[in-house]
Amino acid sequence: MSSPRTCLLLLEALEPELVRAGIASGQLPCLAGLCASGRHGDIRLLPGIGANALWPSLYTGLPPQRHGRFYHQQVEDGGYTLGASHQTGSQAPAFWEALAEAGHRVMILDAPKAPPASGREACYIANWRGHFSYRKELQIEPRALEASLNEAGLSPGECACITQRFKASQELDCTALVAQLEAAVSASRDLILNRVTEEPWDLLVAGLSAGHCAGHQLWHLRDRRIPAFDPGDPLARVYRSLDDAVGAILDQLPRGTSLAVFIGPGMGPGHVHPEVMGQVLAHLEPSDSPGAGHLRRGLTWLWRRLPVAVRQQLLRAGHQLDQRLQHTDFSQRRCFPVRSNDNIGGVRINLQGREQCGQVSPEDYPAYLDRLAEQLAALRNADSGEPLIHCVLKTRDLYPGGELGAMPDLLVEWNEQLPLRAVTGPGLSRLEVTYPPLWSGAHNQHAMLILRGGTATGSGPLPSDSSVLDIAATISQACGAVSRVGEGHSLWSRSGTD
User: Fold this and answer.
1) What is the pLDDT of residues 382-422, one digit of tens each?
2) Cα torsion at 494, 44, 236, 32 (round to 10°)?
3) Are 112 and 59 in contact (CB under 8 A)?
4) What's the rounded Cα separation, in Å, for the pair 29 and 208?
5) Quick one: which of 48, 163, 373, 490 could link to 483 by a disulfide (CB 3.0–4.6 Å)?
6) Which contiguous run of DSSP H or E holds residue 30?
7) Backbone phi, psi, residue 77, to 5°
8) How many Å apart are CA 278 and CA 1, to the nearest integer?
9) What are the two backbone dihedrals, phi and then psi, of residue 139, each rounded to the nearest 5 degrees?
10) Alpha-carbon distances, residue 450 vs 33, 37, 261, 340 (angstroms)
């Protein structure tokens, strides 16, 4: 099909503030040139929604209660245990499916948390070098393409957060880690260059994910308050490698290609382990039959003291036992924690008529939800006195209907700025935090977008209300299709003063 060529590059989990600093200092010349010649600005992410739900919202233009994906591992069907891990399917199609059905040649190359192939894509590769993507999850369509990639010397690989799993960031060999991350950047770049030069295409959606692991594993080296501070800034080295890769890709795009570069979700310090919510709720809202919960927490304590190699071998069996105990524990409680991302937590009410063993009546639900939200908002970092949580949000207010599916009833955005050793607040004297996070960097709600070419003219800012929900429509319009997808509207024709 003859149509304008469009490229969406996804620089996964780079921190926009660091990108802007690198542009200003001249360390990121390719991204600097794009910003100077195109339009750019902040992108609003969805309140209380972590990175795992960001990607299906970006691809569909819909909030999570409409596409159904809150996390890659969700509590389903009123139960208390988690479904299969690394799920990326959603209840709504990605924007490129309509384009492919209309005859556009669509190429999806390692886009973060991309939904499974629809069968209409000209080329679909997932979990090639993606963050926390295992080799067994590799998907290549058409299947015959795998042999061609092997002949070209291209090979998939697991990311640093997998190869270094169960190890704290501060324990890693920084030099070896940076070399691994730079090699991953090169591998992702080479895959994209191979496909854009060897295969005809109209739409390219491609991910570069090494910045994700870099942010999680290297953030502590940017903190002047700790002995490990490195003035050479290894994280900046990875960012420079990514900038070079973007430049190499742009050099191979046909003249006149419309380009969008999404940067995010951002990264910053990570001081709150996701299991803190479980610790807090066990004290604020204890179970009348706490045996399973005590046993589960005790086994978790033992698990974390096993050698890494032993944990790797026992991972599947350990997860199965943990889920059986979780079912028994959560089913007897009035509320329980729901896992999301590192900077986002959730609480699900054990509601009668919705959960299998509901403990809270629908009549008591509103008042109980209000009381629990107030308790969480009042929690403090015991050492700093700062709030433990930036904000507590009710799903039924922001994402109505989401609480009827897999989403939590309450969403919290953690305050990750300072180390957390203990929690205080109403109902808590001093709760010692059992586990510090393994990763030194955690996601935040920052993101930015750069647009160049297409129907946009000149340079300047994007509209101040630009949302992640607008990106699917923006790419769709650049391909000559509709300018509205889901709840999003194209940004090409909107001015920075909108």
Assistant:
1) 999 999 999 999 999 999 999 999 899 999 999 999 999 99
2) 10
3) no
4) 17
5) 490
6) helix 29-37
7) 55, 45
8) 53
9) -125, 125
10) 11, 10, 5, 28
Exposure string over 38-64, b if 16+ CB within 10 A, otherwise e: bbbbbbebbebbbbbbbbbbbbbbbbb
The average pLDDT across 238-264 equals 97
Instruction: Please give the Cα distance from 467 to 471 (Å, whole number).
Output: 7
Query: Does residue 460 sit in helix, strand or coil?
Result: strand
Q: Which two tokens stand for residue 357?
A: 């063993």
Longest dimension (CA), the chain: 67
Return the higher-pLDDT residue of 284 and 297.
Answer: 284
Q: Which residues contact 85 (CB under 8 A, 6 or more apart)?
A: 72, 73
Distance, CA of 315 to CA of 309 (rounded, Å): 10
Tokens 């919510």 -> residue: 277
**Is the CB of residue 446 less than 8 Å from the CB of residue 34?**
no
CA atoms within a 13 Å half-sphere pointing along the CA-CB vector of 476? 27
How far, in Å, CA of 411 to CA of 361, rounded?
21
Q: Is 291 helix (H, G, I), strand (E, B) or coil?
A: helix
Nearby residues of 398 by Cβ (< 8 Å), 6 or more positions away? 47, 48, 411
Residues of the chain with CATH 3.40.720.10: 6-269+442-489
CA distance 488 to 286: 42
CB-based burial of residue 407 (10 Å sphere; 0-12 exposed, 13-18 middle, 19+ buried)?
buried
pLDDT at res. 63: 97
Assigned CATH for 6-269+442-489:
3.40.720.10
Q: Are 41 and 461 in contact (CB under 8 A)?
A: yes
Residue the block writes with tokens 């750069």: 450
∠ Cα 415 323 395 (to 5°): 40
- Which of 4, 6, 476 has its CA nearest to residue 196? 6
**Contacts (Cβ under 8 Å, ≥6 apart) of 246:** 9, 11, 30, 31, 208, 261
Report the chain's terminal Cα–Cα distance, integer Å: 34
Question: Where do we find the tokens 């556009």?
Answer: 104
Tokens of 278: 């479980």
Residue at token pair 């209380």 = 48
Average pLDDT, the chain: 92
